[in-house]
Each structure stands twice: as C-alpha cells, then as structure tokens.
C-alpha cells in the first residue's frame, strides 16, 4: 500500500475503535512500522493541482460531461461549486440535504440556505456549507434535477454506490479527466475551490500558485476556515492544497482583519 492508503486505513480503524469505546486500541501509527517512509506522506503541495493551472476550462469540460451523463455532470458541478469530495458529491441527496438557515441553526441575516454535507464524509463529520453564490445555487438546482426521487442521491438510482463510483470514473476517463489526458482529475476541483477561497480571504494566490506573502494571522485564519469548509479537522492539512505559508510573513493582530470565515464557522473533529 502507498503511504496515503495506509494513512486512510489507519484513520478508519481509529474511528472504529472510537465507536466501540476502545480509544486506546490503536497505537500511534509509527508503532507499526520500522521504516517511517512506509507510512509518512507529504502534506505540503509542491505542485498546483487546480484545473485552471493546466489551462482546462472547467465549465466547458463539465458541459460536455453533462451532455453525456447528467448524474456525472451534477457531481462535477457540486465538486466545483462546494469543493466536495468524489463520494460526497455522489451521495448527496439534494431534496433532503438542502436546509433553510433556520433548519441549519444559522442567523437569519446570512445565507438563506445551506448544504448539509454528511454522507460520504471522512469520519462521518457533518458540515454545513452556505449556498451563497449563483454558482452554488446553479449546482444545487442541477443536482435536484439529476436526483429523480425525493430520497434519491445525485448518482443514478439504478446503480449501487460502488457501481456509481466506477461509472463516474469511467465517464471521467471518457472525457479525458485523467492525469494522462487533460492532466487533471476531479479532486483538482477541490484544490481550485480552496485556492479561490484563499484568494478571496487574503487577496493573494496561495503559495503553491506563486502568491505573495500574507500577514501571518490572516493566513492562519484563512487556512482554518478553508480546513473547516473542506471537512478537515486540522488546518495543517490545507498545506496539501495551498502549499506551506511563506516563512517570515509579517504578523499582526487577527482583529485587524475582517473575519474571512463566511463558510462554516463550527470546527470539526480531527482528520
């Protein structure tokens, strides 16, 4: 197994141990390996993996996918608009998982609706994502059209989840959404969502894309908000999307900056 796969399996086992009340069942992952290289993976992006960097017009490609398969197209739109994971987009039930601000327990003077993302998430962590842009409104509307019945997910109801995942990967290959084809994968839309959020919050491209130095407090605040939006418990995980913060960035009080966390202010559990 690759280090990333080992880390994922270990995370599953640790979550299960918590479910059965045996939190000490799993030792630290390093206890199971003589060579740390077998389980350690780099969590700092060295290459910008957004579709934009590869010169790929996401909207044009997704329109082609939509013409071929509306379920696959709706999944990609959700990944693009909300930064959802592959499985999260497939398992979303738009007729059930779109909440009003009141249902979501959010202020009435904020976004009117939220996406309740809790199916297919890592560790079963729930997060509420505001439906606060025309792009997100359009993605939710398209997902609602793709999900035929009130209890259906975005994936084709004639397929099991495993079959839907395989079919979506087939559609991606058919349209060249692979490293060998267009040199992008669906997960790159998640990277692009994180990069766009970082630029909105800080005024700079992320470090991995060549952005300039950002005030240390503002950088940390943005990374925390992006980590929560993406469903990660630790802001350090965001290094895998944005790159490491610039060393020696100027620091000032966070109070000097507006709060950039307009997405999901509630912290999640550990990754």
Descriptive overview:
The protein has 271 residues and is mostly helical. Among the domains are: 3-38, no CATH class; 56-185, Alpha-Beta Complex (Topoisomerase I, Chain A, domain 3). The protein is 42% helix and 4% strand. The protein contains ten helices and three strands. The chain has a three-stranded antiparallel β-sheet with strand order 1-2-3. The longest helix is centred in the N-terminal third of the chain and has 17 residues, at 3-19. The two termini are 20 Å apart.
Topology of helices and strands:
Elements: H1 3-19, H2 58-68, H3 70-82, H4 86-91, E1 98-100, H5 101-104, E2 113-117, E3 127-130, H6 134-146, H7 161-174, H8 187-202, H9 216-230, H10 239-242
Antiparallel strand pairs: 1-2, 2-3
Estimated structural class: mainly alpha
Number of helices: 10
CATH C-level class of the domain at 56-185 is Alpha Beta
Which strand order does the major sheet show?
1-2-3
Q: In percent, how helical is the residue content?
A: 40-55%
Level-2 CATH architecture of the domain at 56-185? Alpha-Beta Complex
Strand content: under 5%
Number of strands: 3
Quaternary form: single chain
Shape verdict: globular
In CATH, the topology of the domain at 56-185 is named: Topoisomerase I, Chain A, domain 3
Instruction: Please mark out the parts with pLDDT under 50 across 5 or more consecutive residues, or reply none.
Output: 252-271
Radius of gyration: 19 Å
Mean of pLDDT: 88
Compute the separation of the termini in Å.
20 Å
- Taken in chain order, the helices and strands follow as HHHHEHEEHHHHH
Note the main sheet: 3 strands, antiparallel
